[in-house]
Specification:
Number of domains: 3
Distance between the termini: 58 Å
Largest sheet: 6 strands, mixed
Bound molecules: glucose-6-phosphate
CATH architecture of the largest domain: 3-Layer(aba) Sandwich
CATH superfamily of the largest domain: Glucose-6-phosphate isomerase like protein, domain 1
Oligomer: single chain
């Protein structure tokens, strides 16, 4: 098979790029009064404006040709219908089944997954009602005031982001915390303000073997047992996992264990039982509204032709900017304080999915894959790294995201935020020439997408997350990579396991230097031993 860059669709885009070399976005707007309407797309009250990119109708046509050449629609259909598209792990990729509201079967490996999905959803509903209603009592008969989700990566970032985003819907007096870092400070700081009698821990780990999560869960378990007795553990822990025996060994009762399945990838798991903290914080109805929003985006992604398909268009614009115009990074800029954790969430979703350099068939790619993703909420980010976006030497594309209505502020106050949201994409595109003061010169022509919806509520949040999931998927298909494995995180984990025994008390007091690593790592470990006042 020809490598991607040797294919007709890719070559056509390369030739087109040469034609576009002299084009400017401003000139494209001047020459096409209907440009905004042509290069924007609405789904319900959710708008994507991609007109502030260096694209013409011909660019988009060539990008759609590329998507068809790479069989995006075929891969999409295989994903939704339970095909094992995660080839390196021989797994289906069915996070879409978790929010499937059709009532139809979703079959993989000869079995319908939907009865299990509905069972767990019902279990989550009952649990969250009990905790929120004060029916769930701790060991001493007290209702729950604080819920601590212990998890990391996909078992932390999604629920933490969504809980934050839905803060206006939280039940007053019920606080949700997230502990992820193996640095004991994270758990210690969280526990400081908590009362074991009213604290419920949710241990979120698909494998139930993750070092960070198991260490933090052990600390939490000891904290409960030391203060309330070993017999209290069962009333203060729930677990979200695919590993039933490990959960039982930990001391969680079967009815407080919430299943997930191997076809749910960690970074796509907030729709599963891993989202229990969202249901507890905001309520099961809100959680299900979020599922419905995601389902609406799923239907759109499945049914709309590529030419009016929001995730496909967002993905193709990204491919154009990254592979043809040389964008080196992509910024995610939510103009919404409650979406402040979205950039971190998308860093994982995007970079863990598409940070790959071999194709699904194991051949080296001959093109760039996923860009560096970074971001922070606006307007804060305007006072920090926006300088580089406006005047730096690197070309960086951005997504600006905002809601028309605020959940917290009146329209006049919210207008201040939105004025900045609109002004920044305008400034990035228009630039400003200043022949007399070069330091005040703005080149302009920096590509941006704007995503604008009515209000940040559970439904629009679900749509937004699903939009990005499918964007990432489409890009992975075009780049011919497997977006659903993450072998790149394994090597460091293995080496840490090998190093850990060298840091134990006995090793620290040993006179002999560590010498079985590379020179730098030996030097660092031996210096660490010296800093602790032990070793040679
Ligand atoms: C995500 C990754 C990874 C995973 C964590 C936690 O796609 O697989 O971030 O979610 O390593 O894994 P466990 O849920 O198994 O603890």
């Amino acid at each position: 098979m020809a490598s991607l860059t040797q294919t007709p669709a890719w070559k056509a885009l390369e030739a087109h790029r040469e034609k576009m070399a002299a084009a400017s976005m401003c000139a494209l707007f001047d020459g096409h009064p209907g440009r905004f309407a042509h290069f924007s797309l609405a789904l319900d009250d959710f708008l994507l404006d991609y007109s502030k990119n260096l694209v013409t109708a011909e660019t988009m046509k060539l990008l759609f040709d590329l998507a068809r050449q790479e069989d995006v629609e075929g891969w999409r259909d295989r994903m939704f219908s339970g095909g094992h598209i995660n080839v390196s792990e021989d797994r289906a990729v069915l996070h879409t089944a978790l929010r499937d509201r059709s009532g139809e079967a979703v079959v993989t490996g000869g079995a319908d997954v939907m009865p299990g999905v509905r069972d767990v959803l019902g279990q989550m509903r009952a649990f969250s009602v009990a905790v929120r209603g004060g029916i769930w009592k701790g060991h001493t008969g007290e209702p729950v005031s604080d819920v601590v989700n212990i998890g990391i990566g996909g078992s932390d970032l999604g629920p933490a982001m969504a809980c934050q985003a839905l803060a206006p819907y939280h039940k007053p007096g019920l606080n949700v915390h997230f502990v992820s870092n193996v640095d004991g400070a994270h758990m210690a700081e969280t526990l400081k303000a908590l009362n074991p009698e009213t604290t419920l821990f949710i241990v979120a780990s698909k494998t139930f073997t993750t070092q960070e999560t198991m260490s933090n869960a052990a600390t939490a378990r000891a904290w409960v047992a030391d203060s309330l007795g070993e017999e209290a553990v069962a009333r203060h822990f729930a677990a979200l996992s695919a590993n039933e025996s490990a959960v039982a060994d930990f001391g969680v009762e079967t009815q407080n264990m919430f299943r997930l399945w191997d076809w749910v990838g960690g970074r796509f798991s907030l729709w599963s039982s891993i989202g229990l903290s969202i249901a507890v914080a905001a309520g099961a109805e809100r959680f299900e509204e979020m599922l419905e929003g995601a389902y609406a985006m799923d239907r759109h992604f499945l049914e709309a032709p590529l030419e009016s398909n929001m995730p496909a268009i967002l993905a193709l614009i990204g491919v154009w900017n990254c592979n043809f115009l040389g964008a080196q990074a992509h910024a995610v800029l939510p103009y919404d304080h409650n979406l402040r954790r979205l950039p971190a969430y998308l860093q994982q979703a995007d970079m863990e999915s598409n940070g790959k350099s071999v194709t699904r068939d194991g051949d080296p790619v001959d093109h760039h894959t996923g860009p560096v993703i970074f971001g922070a909420p606006g307007t804060n980010a305007q006072h920090t790294f926006f300088q580089l976006l406006h005047q730096g030497t690197r070309m960086i594309s951005s997504d600006f995201i905002a809601a028309a209505e605020s959940c917290n502020a009146g329209p006049e106050r919210h207008a201040i935020l939105l004025a900045n949201f609109f002004a920044q994409t305008e400034a990035l595109m228009l630039g400003k020439k200043d022949a007399h003061a070069p330091h005040k010169n703005f080149e302009g022509g920096r590509p941006t997408n704007s995503i604008l919806f009515r209000k940040l509520d559970p439904r629009s949040l679900g749509m937004l997350i699903a939009l990005y999931e499918h964007k990432i998927f489409v890009q992975g298909v075009i780049w011919r990579i497997n977006s659903f494995d993450q072998w790149g995180v394994e090597l460091g984990k293995r080496l840490a396991k090998e190093i850990l025994p060298q840091l134990t008390a006995a090793q620290l007091t040993a006179e002999a230097d560590v010498d079985n690593h590379d020179g730098s790592t030996n030097g660092l470990i031996n210096h660490y031993k010296k800093l602790l006042g032990r070793g040679s």
